[in-house]
Write a structure and sequence with these properties.
The protein has 10 helices and 12 strands. With 294 residues, the chain is of the alpha/beta class. The radius of gyration is 19 Å and the shape is globular.
């Protein structure tokens, strides 16, 4: 068995500030010199490019020739009870071999059962048995891909009575035992903390900082009784202090702004991404609001 990695971020690079590669922005990217794109890197949804040889694949080839790219999946079902999908892993490995991503990520979740994909990121019961199950599956995926797997904390809307530990403990133990990395979505921490009533800052502090490879930022929908992770709005004010907390704890890791519905124009997307740099330098929305109304 390979010795556990001890270097921060599993030796993976700090890519800077990036955005998701989304179809509405293809025309702008193709018509603009790469030097003027205004972002350091791109994240792609892996499933959008499996078995794909059309225009989107061409855009990705152009982007990957000029910027680092990360593959982010939604169908691995690492917590599922079905056997790992060998055909899916073969396609994922083939795409990674062709694209040479900085890393490959997915979610701590299950996405279906009995061969049926629910197309949703469903939460796990946080039990010792589930932890052992996921550890084994992460090791198998990493062996097949020949590279570390980076797992994201999900947003959740219910909790299991059977759970034996908080999500942050599950993730921390998983990352150490499986020797994998973490994609810390601070918006998801905010959403789940609101929905379940835990302290989001304590969640962030409980994770092993050296295992955090990447951060996600996004905007949820406020439905009154709960928040829904919709990726269709600016990053909430309450998320920026959590983001700054992660960056301080890790010494700085790659930042990715997700925006998947009601996608704004490229300039507006960059303006939202620019808040990440401001937050790292001390800006906080609440502080500015107090000053503005003082």
């Amino acid at each position: 068995m390979a010795a556990p990695r001890t270097q921060p971020r599993l030796g993976l690079p700090h890519l800077g500030d990036g955005v998701g590669l989304r179809e509405p922005h293809f025309p702008h990217l193709m018509a603009t010199a790469p030097a003027d794109w205004g972002v350091d890197w791109f994240e792609v949804i892996s499933e959008n490019f499996l078995d794909h040889a059309g225009y989107a694949a061409h855009v990705l080839e152009v982007v990957a020739a000029h910027r680092p790219v990360v593959m982010h999946g939604v169908s691995l079902s690492i917590g599922g009870t079905d056997p790992l999908d060998a055909a899916y892993l073969d396609k994922l490995a083939a795409l990674a071999d062709r694209l040479k991503p900085a890393w490959v990520s997915d979610h701590l979740c299950w996405t279906g059962v009995a061969g049926i994909n629910t197309h949703d990121l469903l939460p796990l019961p946080l039990t010792e048995a589930a932890l052992a199950h996921v550890i084994d599956r992460v090791k198998a995926v990493q062996d097949r891909l020949g590279r570390p797997l980076i797992l994201e904390n999900p947003s959740s809307y219910l909790e299991f009575r059977a759970s034996q530990m908080p999500e942050w403990e599950f993730l921390a133990r998983l990352a150490e035992a499986a020797d994998c990395g973490l994609l810390l979505d601070v918006n998801n921490v905010h959403v789940s903390a609101f929905n379940h009533g835990f302290d989001p800052a304590a969640y962030v502090d409980a994770l092993p900082a050296e295992r955090i490879v990447q951060v996600h930022l996004a905007g949820p929908s406020d439905l009154g009784t709960h928040l829904m992770d919709t990726h269709d709005a600016p990053v909430p004010d309450a998320v920026w202090p959590l983001y700054a907390q992660v960056q301080a704890r890790t010494g700085g890791v790659s930042t990715l702004l997700e925006w998947d519905a009601s996608i704004p124009a490229w300039a507006d997307l960059l303006a939202e991404l620019a808040k990440a740099g401001a937050a790292r330098n001390g800006w906080r929305p609440a502080v500015e609001a107090v000053r503005a109304h003082g």
